[in-house]
Every structure is written in structure tokens, then in C-alpha cells.
Design brief:
Layout: E1 8-10, E2 24-28, H1 32-41, E3 47-51, E4 58-60, H2 70-78, H3 82-97, H4 118-134, H5 139-145, E5 157-159, H6 162-167, E6 172-175, E7 179-183, E8 186-189, E9 194-196, E10 199-202, H7 225-229, H8 263-283, E11 289-291, H9 293-307, H10 337-345, E12 352-354
Parallel strand pairs: 1-10, 2-3, 2-10, 3-6, 4-5
Antiparallel strand pairs: 7-8, 8-9, 11-12
Helix pairs in contact: 8-10
InterPro entries: FAD-bind_Monooxygenase_sf, FAD/NAD-bd_sf
Length: about 350
Amino acid sequence: MESFAGPSFHSARWPADLDLSGTRFALIGAGASGFQLAPSIADQVAQLSIYQRTAQWMFPNPVYRTTVPAGDRWALRHLPYYARWFRFMMTYPGIAAGTASYRCDPDYDDADGAAVNEGNAARRDQLEAWIRSQLEGRPDLIDKSIPDYPAMGKRILQDDGFWLQGLRKPNVELVRIGIDRVVPDGVVTDDGVHRPADIICYATGFHHNDFLAPMTVIGRNRVSLREQWGDEPTAYLGVTVPNFPNLFCLYGPGTNLAHSSSLFFHSEFQMSHAMEVIHLVLTRGAHAAEVRRGAHDEYAAWHQSEISQLVWAHPSITHSHYKNPAGKVFTLSPWPIDQYWELTKVLDPDAYELR
């Protein structure tokens, strides 16, 4: 990578003064970031080579990039309770769906890794039909664009045709062959083909499992949180951790959502739980609260038992940022939103030791 002669950067560090005109652009990675970048720059560059390790499922959203109408913006600002109603209408469909459609059916034949239950197979057919409709007449792109793992098994993307139609442009190539090396003037893939490049952008994701990075958090007896968590981060209700009194996590281990809707709701529940613990400390005349090891471990085991039965943990899914190196999922929540609300709305004081 260091040998490349031109500009190269991570997508999060896009240079403000970068001139794309007439360049040969190599985009390495086509997940959520690359998915948006590629069609946005395709008309500005001479050649766009998109290097994608894994095809992504996407669902059609015709208003995905549509500007919020002026009337809606006015109503959100001025009509009493309209914003609450709008939020409810946006989030309730996902909340009401729960997690049943993501559960692996032990009686379903999943030997081909294509689906985990009957409903999941039907969803796969729907999403595949959308991809085929957008790429009609391009069997080469269809073969490259249909994932070989269950629908919803990774972070699903949204498309109004922007991505799929972008792939059809004459100056765009979707490369699904592994990269062997980066050379001064381009990229060489595992088949020996050299594709020239003037600019390389690495849309290769983030350290999803490295919670609280780059901070160093030290608890009781000089325990390092990073060392305690390792590749298996856990927290009681995703909020509190043994050995770390008075530390409360929002969006902590096991609270990311790949189902349902609204991380904001989730964060509100976590904040409510944290405030209840703080209130307990103050009313008891204590100065610190720490989750008991037994309560934490029981919850962590329950979390693993539940998440292992859902599609994101299915063995057919590889190269997933949800999984740790051992193929286990510690980042996602297995709970429907309403169940997580029930878990966090009433504090169990016996789960905490006060000092």
C-alpha cells in the first residue's frame, strides 16, 4: 500500500481539495460507505474500478435520496406533536416486526446457506428480483451482485437504483476478485490482472468491535477494559461492566441494531437505566455502583444463547463486521425493541453492589 505513487486515503479522510476529473479511481471496499461513494463519483472520473469482496443485500427505497419536502420540514417545526407522530410512523413498522423473521428455523434445510427459514427465503427472492430488474441485460453484473448468504445476514443497504444503475456505466468495473497487491501505479488482483489507478480510496470499514477506542479505560485494581473485553465484549444490559464502578455505556456491547429501528430509542433506554442506578446510589448515601459479576454473567450467557439463534450468527456468513475472529457475535442486540425496553425500564437493585 505504501508503494502507491498517487493519493490514497481511507474514505473517512477524504481530502477536501481532491480533484477527480479524468482520473482512474480505485475504490477498495463496497459496503455501506463504498456503496454511496461509487455512484456519486462515477460521472467525474475517467475510470472507476470497484473492488468488492462480498456482494451486499439491499432493499429498494424509492425515496432514499429524496429531499424532505418543505411542507414536512415546516410541520416538524411548527405543528404540535407532528414530530412525535412522524417518529412513531417511521419507527413502529420495524419495532412491531420483532426478531422472529431473523431466527434460524432448526427444521429448515439451510445446507446451501441461502436462507435460514421460509420467510427468509421469500425475502431473498424479493431482494434478488430487485437486483435482477435493475441489471437486466447484464448477466455478468447479476452474477457478481447477488449475495450467496441469507438475506439480512449482514448490514442491509438501501438503493433507489443509484448503486445498481451506476454499475452499468461504461467507465465502471465491478471487480469481485481478491487483491494480490498494490503497486505504484495501480492494483493487481489474484488473477494477475493489473488495473491502473491514479487515486485509491479505502472504503474498508471501521473497527466495529473495538469498543471505546481509542480511549484507555482503567477500572478497579488497574484492570484494563480493553484487556478484560478482548474479542468478547460484554456488559449487563449493554450498559455496565464488572470491575468498572460508575461506568455506564451507551451503544455498548450487544446493543447495536441490525433489526427493528432506532438506535436513539435504544440509547434512551440505556440512559434511563443509568439514571436509575445513579438515583439508587444517591438515595442510599453511597458513592459508587458496580454490577455484580453473577448478574452480568447470567445476562451475557443469555445474550449469547439468543444471538446465536439469529441469522447474523449463521455459519454461512463470513467476512462480517458483526462477528469476532472466532465467528461469534457480541455487538448486536437479539432483543425486540419492546423486550429491551422491558429489560431496562425497571431497575433490579440486587444486580448492583453499592459502596
